[in-house]
């Protein structure tokens, strides 16, 4: 478990991390997100005692890293810049680490097996591919059988098999009741791996939440509904404050454009005294509607209360990437210039 309280790091005038507080709990994978330069690596380095905070504290299992009697048993880390002696074999690299940390030889074979490096364990690490190097880095992190893992961009440059392997490893590790803090710029991968999120920008906490809530909040309450009585349902929903539009749906039996009853152009919004007949008119005979402003659970309850059958009730969620881009837009330090035309910036 990791607890950061008021963590701050300044490099001269530059504030890399400012008053950052969060908790990385056991039993879940926590994604650490932020645009380039947000302060993720600096934060991880402070947690691991590699950088001295200017202010605040970072605790692992209740103690600062430097006060842990057997740090490798508490935390294993893979930081972006890997320090592997290229002339040593994987097994010798792990042996050197094990000897300086009082870890038994048997554990070396276990972690080599665990990360799938058995066939190359006695080959020079300098000749390793990027993926093999990452596996060796993870083997080093796992050596002390730690209760917490910290990984900075572990899937960078890995092939799909390697990415999936790390995903399964981290989820399995968390399922054993251990804590995992992992940073990545690959949002689609993060969405599959993490269940909790810490999002920072310009060194400050933006959100500490679950992936599901983060995506839900960024999506707004947008729900796709299919019902044979969509117009009647629309009336009820508008009365409750929702905005309703006929949703394009190839399966819907919409009359041809211009036919009486099909006027979906203007969304139905909440009005103090809505002319509810207009609601049905605007939805026409559409069976599919998009509802903004009410949660799907509420829509389901209202439909049930009104005796209206629902054939589909689907919250429309944005991707984690879209949610991240929206929420960190103002916290981006380095932005790309908009391409001026074909061939620009390429
Ligand atoms: N040793 C240093 N001296 C001065 N500034 C530094 C130092 N280390 C980091 N910084 C600055 O602190 C800020 C945070 O950097 P950090 O590497 O922690 O961000 P990050 O979120 O890990 O970025 P990335 O996603 O690009 O890896 C950046 O503006 C960086 O330039």
Automatic annotation (TrEMBL):
<feature type="region of interest" description="Disordered">
    <location>
        <begin position="247"/>
        <end position="275"/>
    </location>
</feature>
<feature type="domain" description="ABC transporter">
    <location>
        <begin position="2"/>
        <end position="227"/>
    </location>
</feature>
<feature type="compositionally biased region" description="Low complexity">
    <location>
        <begin position="247"/>
        <end position="269"/>
    </location>
</feature>
<dbReference type="InterPro" id="IPR003439">
    <property type="entry name" value="ABC_transporter-like_ATP-bd"/>
</dbReference>
<protein>
    <submittedName>
        <fullName>ABC-2 type transport system ATP-binding protein</fullName>
    </submittedName>
</protein>
<keyword id="KW-0547">Nucleotide-binding</keyword>
<dbReference type="InterPro" id="IPR003593">
    <property type="entry name" value="AAA+_ATPase"/>
</dbReference>
<dbReference type="Pfam" id="PF00005">
    <property type="entry name" value="ABC_tran"/>
</dbReference>
<keyword id="KW-0813">Transport</keyword>
<keyword id="KW-0067">ATP-binding</keyword>
<dbReference type="GO" id="GO:0005524">
    <property type="term" value="F:ATP binding"/>
</dbReference>
<dbReference type="GO" id="GO:0016887">
    <property type="term" value="F:ATP hydrolysis activity"/>
</dbReference>
<dbReference type="InterPro" id="IPR027417">
    <property type="entry name" value="P-loop_NTPase"/>
</dbReference>
<comment type="similarity">
    <text>Belongs to the ABC transporter superfamily.</text>
</comment>
